[in-house]
Design brief:
Elements: H1 2-19, E1 33-34, E2 44-46, H2 48-56, H3 60-74, E3 81-87, E4 91-96, H4 98-111, E5 125-129, H5 141-159, E6 163-170, H6 175-191, H7 206-213, H8 228-254, E7 261-264, H9 265-270, H10 273-283, E8 287-290, E9 293-296, E10 307-310, H11 318-330, E11 335-341, H12 348-357, E12 364-369, E13 372-376, E14 379-381, H13 393-400, H14 402-411, E15 418-421, H15 422-426, H16 433-454, E16 459-461, H17 468-477, H18 480-490, H19 495-513, E17 517-518, E18 521-523, H20 524-544
Parallel strand pairs: 5-6, 5-11, 6-7, 11-12, 13-15, 16-18
Antiparallel strand pairs: 1-2, 2-4, 3-4, 8-9, 9-10, 13-14, 17-18
Amino acid sequence: MIKDKIRDIIREEIIEQQQTEELPVFEIPEIEIEYPQLEQYGDYSSSVPLKLAAVLQRDPIEIGDQLVKGIRQRVEGNKIIEKVELASPGFINFYLKSSWLSEAMQMIIKKGEQYGKSNSGHRKKIQVEFISANPTGPLHVGNGRGAFLGDTLANILNHIGYQVEREYYVNDIGKQVDILGESVLRRYLQHKGISVPYPEHCYKGDYIKDLAKSFVLRNYTLNSIQKFDEIKEKTKLTVLKKMLKQIKDFLENKLNIKHDIWFSEQSLIDSGKFEKIISQLKEKGHTFEKDGALWFKSTEFGDDKDRVLIKSDGSPTYFATDVAHHVVNYETNSKKINILGADHHGEIPRLKAALKALGYEDRLDVIFVQFVRLIEGGYEVKMSKRSGAFITLEELVEEVGVDVVRFFFLMYTVSTHMDFDLSLARKKSSKNPVFYVQYAHARICSIMEKLKKEEGSLKKVKTGLEHPSELILAKELIKLPDLLEEISQSYEVHRLPFYSIEIAKKFHEFYAQCKVIDEGNINEGRLELIRAAQITLQNVLSLMKVTAPRKM
């Protein structure tokens, strides 16, 4: 990774100058390496002189000049760095050698689908929990943001050397699943001609009727509803299995998302793990009883009020089972990443407080996903034309295709609300970003296919990368390893689709100005460049699970 190499060069120079007493001894701050916005300022840049100026109370230009002199000697003969310059108000700018860029393209070709992979994760176990929607209905459009974010982030983490476990936490106890069972049972009895009311609290939607029609109630007399409460629990368990199967089949068959673990909330109770963990909180003195309920002293850990663990009727709160769930996760993973809707924001402080009370260090990172609106012709689309109810994720995928849905959801930073433009999503033109990227990949494949057919009649000419558009494209392609490493730390997955757009843009600009075949000659340098571009684009699309078509 180029950024790491430059970072090491700067750090080594600072350490050497500290050892020779040209600089005093101090803790070296984080050395940030950025891409300059203007080409005149090089290919990579560091503001470390500005940081050191604050520490040393000296002029940043003076510090920068001192560092640059040493760095220039350090990179003399370096095959990657062409030159190092100092720029006001205190930036050290690095320029790459064009000869090395040609070698880098050959390296990308040699690595192929392995390009971008690393072992920086050192096989550490990390769990990504995502979607985890209540199994009380089909996945809605909002679930899509967390679904594609979690799946792509897991792909990236796996790509750079982590052992990744994908988890779907199934909330299969509590009031909502009770209502699901009751709703289906009432619709089933109505379907069988038995007059039963359908209260307001029951779930609406055709999916309830569909579940009821597929439901078979055995060994019960249907001419009476006296056994309604007795059979409601049996109905709930059967319906829950059906609903989970539908969700799982949709994720795996339509979205290509496969979870390693479907973790049941009920299993925490059945296994005794929940009781054991609550007992640990009691033994540590972090609970108290009030009004017949068991409470956690969360105010002692910075929460604004204490929280109920066990309700007065003896049933656990969602908070309590969530604590137990995370403790179980911690037993097998060094870190957990939880992707949640923004409406869950208030739950995390109390969860982290309970984990701290149990003696666990903070190993939980939470990504909050903001809401989605579907927009058509400038107006929000709230209802499905087909069902008259909320629009499901499956309906959206059927409408515009899974590639488009994936790419569009991934394009937006999840910390902001998203407007999904249906009109743009349907377009098969360069205005549609996923089409634009896929077309670039298909165009490269078409060029390479043509070259393969004509190869025997063409003369190969060995050249380096010299034209500005060649160099610009090559410099973009070498960014992938650094980008994946940065996303693994920041979780800013939206940078990946934008990177693919940037590659496509720079390829189109290159191809408009440079010929790969000219007067019967194949320019080998340019051939290697477009082959490297094809590999990089394919690898990026693969990480997003967006198809990379060879023809369009």
